[in-house]
Each structure stands twice: as structure tokens, then as C-alpha cells.
Design a protein that fits this description.
heterodimer; A: ABC transporter involved in vitamin B12 uptake, BtuC; globular; B: 242 residues; 2 domains; 10 helices
């Protein structure tokens, strides 16, 4: 029982990361109408930028946060015209092209990380940002400060996003475009500008995720982005592509499931579980558990 | 049917407009005018090009050639969001309301470019359509067809437009509701809104409008005052079934 509770706690913090990633992925999918498969690679890239900045600023956490958020926003905004231009050239939305484009961006990022930083070796974050201090300990159950940060910031970030979606003017435009892009055009919503705003918002989410990953894991490597990208896509498909609420639930559940598998079977199986679930789900519910929102 | 009153300076002029979708020529040289304080109707069967005319004016399609002058300036090639900001609004065919969003959200979308005085605009729309105030927190999916049409018109009003383009308001509505919608359009016009309407329901539309144009496969074949068109033999045979 103690193992189980301990793994649930591990799963919740890991799940918060998946939730943040899949929320950013889904937002780009429904508002900018792109499959940004490599969005998690943008996040990992931002982790490297944060690491660099800490190296040169005597381990400043504030500057690391600013650098991660800034880098994710900039990377997103640089790629935005590329995605939108390709779509325009191909006469309207062509979601497959955007996926290939994103794959390419991901490969470039991975290559830059493996050649440009730390000779391609995994990087370790300075102690002051890593949250590995145990703050609650009851028998086998141990909760680290990093886990608490991840869960709390995750909840705040996702609530913030939903507040933006349901209580603000740009959020209203996001939802309108997500529901009916043509209808949105007919009422005079600026599609490109609104899409750009969604790239910026997912940039902020991505930067926050990068810092949380640093806090939770304390390390990263060039290959991590791709591995996580596969999982984020799986979560989105299991929940239903573009379904924000579904992504919240499935992201959290996947985190817990992986942790439980890790606790009882073996860590090496945990990475496969998302895809096993995905295969089973799309066999019975091709549009995902909660339905596609495309 | 009545004479236009007050200021009747030229608001919209469409000149020799050609539009195509790929190889299909949708509009083959359209000329039309809308004066301030008028209701003008574009009559035509399915596929005649009515929606294309309205959407091209709004800025959805880029014309092959020809020009569109709005309030003295060419708006050819100007994007829809700029045109909405400058006072042209479309009430789309089939209403085009966002079904999963609340009535209030739908209305606020209309004011996307014009968020100051939003309360005032909202209250004015609620005065026109009290039912929308009652239903403001319901999602639009739960509205009846007539209520959706009112929502679509209300949403257009939220932008305080000079010119309202209304695409086939009667489609899919019960006759009694159609009457109600046309009464609303007539009243809006009396309050100073200029309206360009497209319709298959020629009888009702011509009775509401000051002038009309008849569109057949991308070309205007007839134009004139509503009275003239209502009595025209060809219109009576083709569109009024008499």
C-alpha cells in the first residue's frame, strides 16, 4: 500500500508535466491548426538555455526562468510564420505538412543540442534549482519539494490557461477558431494574429514546463525531447486530438500509470505503456476517449 | 417597400466584379450599388453566386478583377477582419453561430474589434432581442433556429456596423419566424442601418427591400425598385411562382 501511495504521488507530478505539454500541443492544434509534434523538443531546448544561463549567472534561478520562458516564446514565434506560410502556400490548412515540418524542426533541435552543448552528454542542473529535498516522509512515502512545486505550478498554469480561454477576449477568439475556423473568419476574427497569440501562449507554457522538468528531474539530454514528444502525441490521441479537458485527465492518468508500472514491474516498461494504451484505445474508440476537437 | 429616406449618399459600389474558385467562374462581372439607409436585396437561386457576392465584399475572396468601393475607398483585397473593423458585418448563411459557446460569448465575438462601450452595445442588442438576454448564459446549441438568427444579427450589431450583409436569413426557418426576422431587418433599417440582403424567398425579401438585383449564374440579369421587380413578368415566373 505504501508503495502504491508513493507511486501515485510520483505519478501526479510526472502527470502534471504531461498535462502541461499536451495542453500546449493541443492549443496549437486547435487554434493555429498545426501538429507541432516537436513542441516538447522546444521545451527541452529551453531547458538547455536555462542551464546555460545559470552557468553564466552564478546559478540565478530567476534568470533561468526568464531564459526558459523567453526561449520557448521566441522559438515558437520564429517557427510560426514558417508553419503558416507553408499552409498558405498549400492553400489552406494542411495538417500533415505541418507535422513533417515540425519533425524537421525537432531533428534540428536535437542535433544542435547534441553538438552544441556539453559535447552531447546529458546535462545536470545546479543543486539550487533541483527539488530533491524530501519534505514529507512517512515510511516508504516520500514527497520531494520538486514534486510539490511541479504539482502546484502545474495546477496554476493550467488554471491560468483555462481562465485565459474562458474569461478573456483572446481566449474567446481561440475557442471560436477552434470550433469553426471559417465561421471565425466570417465574423472578422484575424486568424493569423490569433494563431500567433496561441504560439506565444504555448511558448509561456513551454518555458514553465522546462523549468519544472529541471526542478523535477535535475537533468536532461538531447534525446529526451523526442521521447517525450512521442508520448505527448499518444496522450493527445488517447484523449481525442485537440480535446483540452480530455488531455488534462489522460495526461494525469498516464503519469500515475507510468509511476505504478515503474513501482511494481520495471522502469523500462513504463515508457511503452502509453503506446499500449493508445493502441487499445484507438482500436475501440478511434476518436479517442473524449472525442476529437478538430 | 418604401422610399429611402434621409441621407442617401453612395455607401457601397461594386464595379465589374469577377471572382473564381479555381477554374470555376463564380461571378462574371457584377455591378451593384447600395446607398445609405437602403435595404437592397440580391435575389437568386441556389448556386447563383449570392454568397460569393457577399463574402467577396466582406473580404473573404480576392476578386480576379473589378473593384469594391466602400464609403469612397477601394476595399478590394482588404481582409475581412479589417473590413469588419471599418464597418462591414456579415450575418452568414445558416447563422454561423458558435454552437458550443454561450450566447454572451457569441455576442462578444462580434465586438472583438470594438471592446470599448461593449456594455452599451450589449444592452442595445438586448433591447432588440430580449430573448437573447434571457438566454445569455445558455450555449448557442440550445437555441431555436429563429433565436440563432437573432443571435447572428445581434452579433453583427455588436460591431456597430455601417453596412450589414445578411446572407439568406430565411433559410430553414418556419414562415412565421421568417416574417419576424424580416420585420426586425426593416426596423433595423428604420433605425439607420444599411442592409444588403441575399434571398431566394423573393416575395418576402422584395416586400422588405427598397431595391433589388436578380442574379443568375454569376451575372445580374435584372435590377430595379422592389415594386418594379415584384411586377416583372420574369421575376414573377422564376421566383414568385405566379
Amino acid at each position: 500500500m505504501e508503495v502504491f501511495i508513493a507511486q501515485i504521488i510520483n505519478g501526479l507530478s510526472l502527470g502534471s508535466i504531461y498535462v502541461l505539454l499536451v495542453t500546449g500541443f493541443n492549443l496549437l492544434l486547435i487554434v493555429a491548426m498545426i501538429i507541432h509534434f516537436s513542441y516538447p523538443q522546444v521545451v527541452v531546448f529551453s531547458m538547455y538555455i536555462a542551464w546555460m544561463v545559470m552557468k553564466f549567472t552564478n546559478n540565478s534561478i530567476i534568470l533561468a526562468i526568464a531564459a526558459a520562458v523567453g526561449s520557448a516564446i521566441i522559438l515558437n514565434l520564429i517557427s510560426a510564420p514558417l508553419f503558416q506560410k507553408v499552409m498558405k502556400k498549400r492553400e489552406g490548412v494542411d495538417i500533415n505538412t505541418t507535422m513533417v515540418l515540425s519533425l524537421g524542426i525537432g531533428m534540428i533541435i536535437t542535433d544542435i543540442l547534441s553538438h552544441g552543448f556539453n559535447e552531447g552528454l546529458p546535462i545536470a542542473f545546479p543543486e539550487n534549482i533541483v527539488g530533491d529535498k524530501s519534505v514529507i516522509e512517512i515510511g516508504l512515502i516520500s514527497v520531494s519539494n520538486g514534486q510539490i512545486y511541479t504539482l502546484v505550478v502545474g495546477i496554476i498554469a493550467v488554471s491560468g490557461l483555462f481562465w485565459l480561454l474562458y474569461r478573456t477576449r483572446p481566449g474567446r477568439a481561440f475557442r471560436a477558431i477552434a470550433e469553426d475556423p471559417n465561421g471565425a473568419k466570417l465574423v472578422g476574427l484575424p486568424l493569423f494574429k490569433t494563431a500567433l497569440a496561441s504560439y506565444a501562449v504555448t511558448g509561456v507554457l513551454g518555458g514553465v514546463t522546462a523549468i519544472l522538468l529541471a526542478v523535477l528531474l535535475g537533468t536532461t539530454s538531447p534525446g529526451m525531447g523526442e521521447q517525450v514528444a512521442n508520448k505527448v502525441l499518444a496522450v493527445s490521441i488517447i484523449a481525442g486530438l485537440g480535446n483540452l479537458t480530455g488531455g488534462l485527465i489522460v495526461g494525469l492518468l498516464l503519469g500515475i500509470l507510468e509511476a505504478v508500472v515503474q513501482g511494481y514491474i520495471s522502469g523500462s516498461w513504463a515508457n511503452a505503456i502509453a503506446f499500449v494504451v493508445m493502441l487499445v484505445v484507438i482500436l475501440f474508440k478511434p476518436k479517442g476517449l473524449f472525442g476529437m476537437k478538430l | 417597400m418604401e422610399e429611402s429616406r434621409g441621407d442617401n449618399s453612395l455607401m457601397l459600389k461594386v464595379h465589374n466584379l469577377f471572382v473564381s474558385y479555381g477554374h470555376i467562374k463564380a461571378l462574371k462581372g457584377i455591378d451593384l450599388e447600395v446607398r445609405k439607409n437602403e435595404i437592397v436585396v440580391l435575389i437568386g437561386a441556389n448556386g447563383a453566386g449570392k454568397t460569393t457576392v457577399l463574402e467577396t465584399i466582406l473580404g473573404i475572396n480576392i476578386p480576379d478583377s473589378g473593384d469594391i468601393i466602400f464609403n469612397g475607398k477601394s476595399i478590394r483585397g482588404v481582409s475581412a477582419d479589417k473590413n469588419v473593423r471599418n464597418g462591414i458585418c456579415l450575418v452568414p448563411e445558416g447563422r454561423g453561430v458558435f454552437a458550443s459557446m454561450s450566447v454572451l460569448d457569441n455576442l462578444l465575438l462580434g465586438a472583438h474589434h470594438n471592446m470599448h462601450n461593449v456594455k452599451e452595445h450589449l444592452n442595445r442588442v438586448y433591447d432588440w432581442f430580449p430573448i437573447l438576454k434571457i438566454r445569455k448564459n445558455q450555449v448557442a446549441r440550445t437555441l431555436s433556429g429563429g433565436e440563432r438568427q437573432m443571435l447572428a444579427i445581434g452579433r453583427a450589431l455588436m460591431a456597430s456596423p455601417d453596412l450589414i450583409l445578411v446572407d439568406e436569413p430565411s433559410i430553414g426557418l418556419a414562415p412565421i419566424i421568417v416574417n419576424e426576422i424580416f420585420d426586425i431587418l426593416i426596423n433595423l433599417n428604420r433605425e439607420g442601418y444599411t442592409i444588403l440582403l441575399s434571398e431566394q424567398n423573393a416575395n418576402k425579401a422584395l416586400k422588405a427591400a427598397h431595391r433589388g438585383y436578380v442574379l443568375e449564374t454569376g451575372k445580374l440579369v435584372l435590377e430595379g425598385t422592389s415594386g418594379k421587380l415584384l411586377n416583372d413578368k420574369r421575376v414573377r415566373e422564376a421566383y414568385l411562382g405566379v
